[in-house]
Design a protein that fits this description.
Number of strands of chain A: 0
Shape of chain A: flat
Oligomer: heterodimer
Number of helices of chain B: 17
Number of helices of chain A: 8
Order of helices and strands of chain A: HHHHHHHH
Shape of chain B: elongated
Distance between the termini of chain A: 63 Å
Structural class of chain A: mainly alpha
Strand order of the largest sheet of chain B: 1-2-3-6-5-4
Order of helices and strands of chain B: HHHHHHHHHHHHHEEEHHHEEEH
Number of domains of chain A: 2
Structural class of chain B: alpha+beta
Helix content of chain A: over 70%
Radius of gyration of chain B: 26 Å
Helix content of chain B: 55-70%
Chain lengths: 172, 417
């Protein structure tokens, strides 16, 4: 197994989930994740793999970099295998679609740095890794995360409340 | 000591503080109910935000064209959705009336070469009237697309092309749009074998017509289901007289058939629903676009199974209306099925589903009725009778059965430890 394959198998799932949550589109997320691993190929040494991968992926989202078709094909095959092994989630019901839409709105309402820190934390990155990936001081990660979480929950609850009111009005 | 700030509380809860700092926080919390309350609140925020973020994980594929990811939601998506709705309603009407005939054509026996040729010609002409759009799609297919990692992209192309004729709302062209749209997930599964999408989109919609043509000829196409499409394409390819349009039609059909029949294990086995039924757990698997099999297992004695069923029922509730409205005939309705969104995948196979017998039977039993094959066999572990039925030849259904058994075994093995 080559080094990039090991990286891919270790981090792809988390990275794709992070990017999917960030971008709202699974295809796009996979595209960016693959590009990230292609970048890792060119790197001679990486200090902290996870922080590096998340930082690169985040930057790629930011500046829509050029892509390397040939190498991505190989990675697309690996992704295909991984998808086959995965159990497909059940179909999205209306309820879940609504929840997803509200979650999307609430996440989009966050400041970019708060959002990225929170999404990275959810993928298990520790404070130092988040600090490294986002070029923050480690001491400020706690504050960033606490703000992100509070705002996310508050705006989600606000959306939920207004939806309930709308439904109530529609019913009466 | 000062109260703890929120950032410190989150850092502590995330285990990011040094041992010294953590000890200080814990000491403070022992004597400060205010900060203790703040910690409780922070725990709530952490849990709730995790839960909210989880809701983002079912993000759709291909909402954004891969090549130009900056455009978010294209208005075309809405146009396609609207077209789908119209088509779904339209095909329901059409197949209520015409479906029965088509089924007769599909389910009859032997393959006549001339009938097949007629069929494939028919299929070609069915595509031909698409004039400008048809040409465009053909050209796209003819260029070997390096589409392995970009199926979404090429689908998009077809959808765009196919959409224009739907302005003059012909049944066929509209169905085409539907097929192009829904083919994305499968095309991914197949992409290791072939550059997919476009030809499949072409191949689908006329599906009901070739069958009718075959019937007019007095001869009939192959046994059932997937085999029909497979045979048609093989012979049209063999005949060597295939027009370019025809060639774009056939390889995909052939590949589709190959993927399912030859490779055996390659087909997707995707649970698409759990229709509610008393005392049994019913799973509807999609093995190909528009092609579903129904798997039934008794649930009476397994607590976990009951829970799962309850969950499934609750989640499925909003969809049942869509299912009920779906067209009743299986293969002939392929175009309709392909044009319906996943959640409305028809549950026709259910119709002919024999009620699961209560006593265990010694070995697998096979019944064929109205072209629907049903296999019943006892579960090796529980002895319950499992039933699998679908509108397809027995051989193929057997393959699916093996696959389902394997997955059940794997799932059971996972549960145990």
């Amino acid at each position: 197994m080559t080094d990039v394959e090991r990286l891919f198998r270790t981090y792809n799932a988390a990275l794709v989930r992070y990017l999917t949550r960030r971008l709202g589109d699974r295809d796009w997320a996979e595209e960016v994740a693959q590009e990230t691993f292609v970048r890792a190929l060119r790197q001679t040494s990486i200090q902290n793999e996870r922080a590096w991968l998340f930082a690169v992926a985040t930057n790629l989202v930011r500046d829509e970099a050029r892509k390397d078709m040939r190498r991505r094909k190989h990675l697309a095959l690996l992704a295909e295998q991984e998808r086959d092994e995965m159990v497909e989630p059940e179909e999205t019901t209306i309820e879940r679609a609504q929840e997803a839409a509200m979650a999307r709105k609430a996440v989009d309402a966050l400041a970019e740095r708060d959002r990225l820190a929170l999404l990275m934390r959810e993928e298990g990155l520790d404070y130092n890794e988040i600090a490294e990936a986002l070029e923050l001081s480690p001491g400020s990660v706690g504050t960033t995360l606490s703000r992100a979480r509070r705002r996310l929950v508050e705006s989600y609850e606000a959306l939920q409340k207004s939806r309930e009111e709308r439904e109530k009005n529609a019913a009466s | 000591m000062q109260h703890l700030d929120e950032g410190t509380i989150h850092s502590w809860l995330d285990g990011a503080l040094s041992a010294d700092e953590a000890a200080r926080v814990e000491a403070h919390l022992k004597e400060c109910p205010e900060c203790e309350a703040a910690v409780a609140e922070a725990r709530g925020f952490i849990a709730a935000s995790s839960r909210i973020l989880t809701a983002l994980d079912n993000a759709p594929r291909g909402v954004i064209p891969v090549a130009a990811p900056k455009k978010r939601v294209d208005p075309i998506v809405w146009r396609v959705a609207a077209t789908l709705l119209v088509v779904a309603a339209g095909t329901l009407v059409v197949f209520r009336n015409g479906g029965r005939e088509a089924r007769i054509a599909t389910t009859n026996a032997d393959t006549g070469q001339s009938a097949i040729t007629a069929t494939s010609q028919n299929a070609t002409t069915a595509v031909a009237p698409m004039a400008p759009t048809g040409d465009e799609t053909t050209r796209m297919t003819a260029e070997p697309t390096p589409s392995l990692s970009k199926p979404g992209n090429s689908t998009r192309g077809t959808t765009n092309g196919g959409l224009q004729p739907s302005a003059g709302p012909t049944e066929k062209s509209a169905a085409k749009v539907g097929a192009a749209n829904t083919s994305t997930p499968t095309s991914r599964a197949l992409s290791a074998i072939a550059p997919p999408v476009v030809d499949r989109a072409e191949a689908r919609p006329p599906a009901s017509q070739p069958n009718i043509a075959a019937r007019d000829d007095g001869k009939v196409a192959a046994p059932v289901g997937g085999a029909v499409t497979g045979n048609i394409s093989t012979s049209s390819g063999d005949a060597g007289q295939a027009a370019p349009a025809q060639q774009t039609l056939s390889p995909m059909r052939l590949r589709g058939a190959t993927a399912l029949d030859v490779a055996g294990e390659q087909f997707s086995l995707k649970p698409v629903g759990h229709p509610r039924k008393l005392g049994v757990k019913v799973t509807l698997y999609e093995v190909a676009p528009g092609d579903t099999v129904t798997f039934t297992e008794p649930v009476s004695l397994q607590l976990d199974a009951v829970v799962v069923t309850g969950l499934g029922t609750e989640r499925m509730a909003p969809q049942s209306a869509g299912k009920a409205a779906a067209p009743p005939v299986k293969r002939a309705a392929a175009a309709a099925a392909a044009s319906a969104p996943d959640s409305q995948r028809p549950a026709q196979a259910l119709e002919a589903l024999a009620p699961a017998p209560s006593a265990p039977v010694p070995a697998a039993r096979v019944e064929v009725e109205n072209g629907v094959t049903t296999i019943s066999w006892p579960d090796p572990t529980t002895g319950n009778v499992l039933t699998l039925s679908g509108h397809m030849p027995e051989a193929r259904l057997q393959q699916i059965k093996i696959r389902i058994e394997r997955e059940r075994a794997a799932a059971a093995a996972k549960k145990k430890p």
